[in-house]
TrEMBL record:
This is Ubiquitin-like modifier-activating enzyme 5. Keywords: ATP-binding, Coiled coil, Metal-binding, Nucleotide-binding, Nucleus, Repeat, Ribosome biogenesis, rRNA processing, Ubl conjugation pathway, WD repeat, Zinc. The lineage of its organism: Eukaryota, Metazoa, Ecdysozoa, Nematoda, Chromadorea. Interacts with ufc-1. It is found in: Nucleus, Nucleolus. E1-like enzyme which activates ufm-1. Required for interaction between ufm-1 and ufc-1. Residues 1-28 form a coiled coil.
Length: 1037
């Protein structure tokens, strides 16, 4: 099975690889087939202004020659990021490429579709490719000098957003920030993502958009802190009552016109060039309405209560920067004259101060229709002539106004205007004939009055609901204009002034005097009161009362039964049946004969029987055992049904016998008892009729407890093992196989020899100390001597074979720790006692030669005065170390030259290492790694074991680094000792746990034991035999 499975996996991997290779081959074949026919040019390192046909930058460099742009070559150093390579973004990328931008960063995650061909510059053969790759393939052939970087991912996700911000921060040609970000996306979420990234990075960006009806658009310049960001106020051109998510659904799409998108893209690129090359004025906001060719412009200030915290931070930074700037008044300079290099047309500058003689002759055979007046020449016009000319000009102006108004009206309006224009022409002719008479002057005045009082045409505005609104701000909150002096813009782009607010007195007077006050509604968008008509009031009343809103609608119209309304004895149509219905039809006979012949020849096939619809039995597999797994079958066999509720007893009857009713004493005991101790959870009651039984108030509680029993009390068959507990104990090995180990006491008191076994509990060996014995140490070389230290301040040496005290030394305080030097050639003992001191002296016991050599060694120790924390002093036959803290324990190195001490306090300098041959002390640790409990030297390597409360750390003293950190699993370590080779470490804890650590195997315990009932105080390992001993507070070893 494993071979078959591996073969299947290999085949799947091959199929995936072939599929990937095929898709890449298709993409390459598309790009190769269609790009091979495109003629590409070599890259141009430097832009040139040479006017030749082979220079693609000659027309662009002409802007510099004409003085419009100071240094157009800087555009090769600029980097622009275009987010969204759709209808607007693709045109923007193409324009910037043709303008020789330095680097383009394209962001989009969509693919090219055939539905995009009406507005994008992609080609049908690029369908299926990502937009950024298709755009790069096209733009590279337009201008190979432009560096194009593509990113095919959605920037609105968290991971891709970080990538997007990183490319804004490091995406330029020099590895720094990009110069400008252009947002050409078509959804609100992506715009907010670009807004957040640019506010966070303090990046200038421009936003663009086209409405869903494709007849309006806008661009907006956004500089964080200076102008309003997208979170402060969205653009004024928004979708008209169309949700953005609705447009993305299947079957619903927005309209698109390449003309509108090209206009918006042109505005966007034009302002981009002005910003990058520093010429002209960059527009803060430019709108575009294709229906009336209207271009509104407006500056948008930032909102100090913006939801984006980075926007608020940038505003504070801009205000602080603006306050710190020093305003300098520029000196008046003389405007330089523009001198053109090419003057092939012979243009000359004319001095306007000179008076030029004007002639009436234009050319050969051409003259002016009237003579132009000379400069400073007064023109004398007679009063009558001037009055007539003024009348004529007024009439011509009125005629011109009527013509202009007639051009914008519909067919019906044109007819009305033509009729009025005919009447006006007749009146004008009449006025011209009688211009000198006063009567005709009055008629002309009346005509002007009629023209001024002309009623507006009914076709000046459309009658639809959306177009009838005079305020064209769109579907945005009106409270955005609370701080402005206007409430919006009309169809001509003029501001609509806010109406004057009414005082309470005005409202009261209007309520008292205006009979239609109750039907007025204030329209916030137009700022006026709208009077509801009777029909609208009736509709509102119908809606409030739950009726149909249509006035006069009757949903229960009477049903008129045409046929059965009047009962008759004859049928409606009593004509006899025609004869043709009783004669066999010849046409049917021919059809039947053809069918019979087709059946005989086997041509005709009957209708296919429809397969019966299969009904899936949801519970069919519950009873069958075919598709069950072993675990399911075992679970079904082990299933135990829920226990049923107990049947009701006589006490639960509504009319129980008298012996089931409680008396006063039983009721009192029932109330005092705990609920779980009661036999009955209710008090039996007696009713003479079932209809008098009230509602049981504990019904829901009992049902709930029953559900809890079924849910929280699972049922399971548990097999009880019939096993003898003694059989579970492991077989103990034969004690003879574990020899050698101690079996008898070295010496016994006389009471034991005489058979007084009761004295065993109070037996004390090696008597001599007064008080508690705190530390003992055995001579490591021969094992003949035992040194002990007690709280009486004495250090005693004992003979192991007889228990006799052979030497006693007195120290300045209670002894805490004693330790024999492990080297047999030195009879040294280190004693730590209270008073923060350590004494190292000669035992003067044993071999006299060794004792004399040890005494000579103590005299030769080079003790010098030092300013360190440990002070070395020689006092008679001993060396005293004055420590900075109380010492808990002293430990010798295997070579006998080094001595380690552990302090009681939990500080960083609790461990010191002392060298006897040089009389020096040093602290190996500068940082606190835990409360040190014990230390031990490695028997052969320069390593130090440091035990804290729960860990054991192994340090290399030669390289001064941590080698291993062992996890003991003990809550508080009490003792620690390594074996002779240093490969194993034995640790005892105050929580009764003893662990065995194999340092070569793992950093965790190899074995763990709990043989003692109290804390383990000491651990010892035999130097020649594989024996280990532990000592506990419970008196056992």
């Amino acid at each position: 099975m494993s071979d078959i499975q591996s073969t299947i996996e290999e085949l799947r991997e091959k199929v995936r690889a072939l599929t990937t290779e095929l898709s890449s081959y298709k993409v390459e074949s598309r790009s190769v087939d269609h790009s091979a026919i495109v003629q590409s040019r070599q890259k141009i390192e430097k832009m040139s202004a040479e006017v030749v046909d082979s220079n693609p930058y000659s027309r662009l460099m002409a802007l510099k020659r004409m003085g419009i742009v100071k240094d157009y070559e800087k555009i090769r150093e600029k980097t622009v990021a275009v987010v969204g390579v759709g209808g607007v973004g693709s045109v923007v990328a193409e324009m910037l490429t043709r303008c020789a931008i330095g680097k383009l960063l394209l962001f989009d995650y969509d693919k090219v579709e055939l539905a995009n061909m009406n507005r994008l510059f992609y080609q049908p053969h690029q369908s299926g490719l990502s937009k950024v790759e298709a755009a790069k393939d096209t733009l590279v052939h337009i201008n190979p000098d432009v560096a194009i970087e593509t990113h095919n991912y959605n920037i609105t996700t968290v991971e891709n957003f970080n990538k997007f911000v990183d490319r804004i921060r490091h995406g330029s040609l020099t590895g720094g920030k990009v110069d400008l970000v252009l947002s050409c996306v078509d959804n609100f979420e992506a715009r907010m993502t670009v807004n957040t990234a640019c506010n966070e990075e303090n990046q200038v960006w421009m936003e663009s958009g086209v409405s869903e009806n494709a007849v309006s658009g806008h661009i907006q310049y956004i500089e964080p802190g200076r102008t309003a960001c997208f979170a402060c106020v969205p653009p004024l051109v928004v979708a008209s009552n169309i949700d953005e998510k609705t447009l993305k659904r299947e079957g619903v799409c927005a309209a698109s016109l390449p003309t509108t998108m090209a206009v918006v893209a042109g505005f966007l690129v034009q302002n981009t060039l002005k910003y990058l090359l520093n010429f002209g004025d960059v527009s803060m906001y430019v709108g575009y309405n294709a229906l009336v060719d209207f271009f509104p412009r407006q500056e948008m200030k930032p909102n100090d209560q913006c939801d984006d915290r980075f926007c608020r931070q940038r505003q504070k930074e801009y205000q602080a920067k603006k306050a710190s700037e020093v305003v300098e008044i520029p000196a008046a300079t003389k405007e330089e004259e523009i001198v053109h290099e090419d003057n092939s047309w012979g243009i000359e500058l004319v001095d306007e101060s000179k008076v030029e003689e004007k002639t009436t002759v234009v050319g050969n055979g051409l003259e002016y229709a009237y003579e132009l007046p000379k400069q400073n020449q007064e023109v004398d016009i007679e009063p009558a002539e001037s009055e007539e000319k003024s009348k004529t000009s007024m009439q011509d102006l009125a005629s011109l106004m009527s013509q202009l108004k007639g051009m914008s009206t519909s067919t019906k309006g044109d007819t009305v205007v033509r009729k009025k224009r005919t009447l006006q022409d007749r009146e004008k002719k009449k006025v011209r004939k009688n211009s000198d008479s006063k009567e005709h002057k009055d008629d002309l005045r009346d005509l002007k009055t009629v023209q001024r009082k002309k009623e507006p045409d009914e076709y000046d505005y459309d009658s639809s609901d959306e177009e009838d609104l005079r305020n064209t701000i769109g579907n945005i909150p009106v409270n955005w204009y609370d701080e402005e002096t206007h409430i919006g813009y009309d169809q001509q782009g003029e501001k609509i002034a806010k109406p004057k607010k009414k005082t309470e007195i005005d409202v009261f007077l209007e309520k008292m005097e205006d009979p239609d006050y109750w039907r007025k509604v204030f329209d916030r968008q137009s700022g006026t009161d709208v009077v509801l008509t009777d029909e609208q009031v009736e509709k509102l009343n119908n809606l409030a009362s739950g009726k149909y809103p249509v006035v006069g609608y009757n949903p229960y119209e009477p049903f008129l039964d045409i046929f059965s309304s009047e009962k008759t004895i004859h049928p409606i149509d009593n004509r006899p049946e025609p004869k043709s219905r009783f004669i066999p039809s010849r046409d049917e006979m021919r059809i039947v004969s053809r069918m019979v012949h087709a059946i005989k020849m086997g041509w005709s096939k009957g209708p296919k029987q429809k397969p019966q619809k299969k009904v899936y039995d949801l519970w069919a597999a519950e009873d069958s055992m075919d598709n069950k797994t072993k675990s399911e079958i075992a679970r079904m066999r082990m299933h135990i049904p829920a226990p049923k509720m107990p049947l009701p007893v006589h006490a639960e009857s509504y009319n129980p016998p008298e012996e089931y009713l409680f008396d006063e004493e039983e009721k009192r005991k029932w109330e005092e008892a705990e609920p779980e101790d009661r036999q009955l959870q209710f008090v039996p009651q007696k009713y003479d009729a079932l209809r008098k039984v009230p509602q049981y108030n504990k019904f829901l509680t009992e049902r709930f407890e029953r559900c809890l029993d079924l849910y929280l009390a699972p049922r399971k068959i548990k097999m009880k093992l019939q096993v003898d507990p003694s059989e579970l104990l492991p077989d103990l090995p034969n004690p003879n196989d574990l020899r050698p180990f101690p079996t008898t006491l070295a010496f016994i008191d006389k009471g034991i020899r005489d058979g007084n076994l009761r004295a065993l509990t109070s037996l004390q060996y090696m008597r001599g100390h007064v008080g508690q014995v705190r530390s003992v140490s055995v001579e490591p070389d021969r094992g003949e001597l035992l040194v002990s230290g007690g709280e009486d301040g004495t250090v005693r040496f004992w003979m192991m074979d007889s228990g006799r005290c052979i030497k006693t030394y007195k120290v300045a305080g209670p002894v805490i720790s004693v330790a024999f030097c492990p080297v047999g050639s030195k009879s040294l003992v280190a004693v730590a006692y209270e008073g923060r001191q350590i004494s190292i002296f000669n035992t003067n016991c044993g071999d006299k030669l060794i004792c004399s050599q040890t005494e000579e060694f103590i005299r030769e120790v080079p003790i010098e005065e030092s300013d360190g924390k440990v002070n070395w002093r020689r006092i008679k036959d001993r060396i005293v170390l004055e420590m900075p803290n109380e010492v808990r324990k002293v430990v010798w190195h295997a070579k006998g030259d080094y001595l380690a001490s552990v302090a009681v306090d939990d500080i960083a300098t609790s461990v010191y290492i002392h060298q006897m041959s040089r009389a020096r002390s040093q602290c190996p640790f500068t940082k606190r790694k835990g409360h040190v409990q014990s230390v031990a030297f490695h028997p052969s390597l320069p390593r130090l074991f440091v035990a804290t409360k729960i860990h054991v750390r192994v340090y290399d003293l030669a390289r001064c680094q941590l080698v291993k950190k062992c996890i003991t699993g003990i809550k508080h370590i009490g003792a620690m000792v390594p074996d002779v080779q240093g490969e194993n470490l034995f640790v005892g804890g105050l929580d009764r746990k003893f662990v065995w650590l194999d340092l070569q195997l793992s950093s965790k315990p190899w074995k763990s034991f709990k043989h003692h009932g109290s804390a383990i105080r000491g651990v010892a390992y035999h130097k020649r035999y594989p024996l280990l001993a532990t000592v506990s507070d419970d008196g056992t070893a």
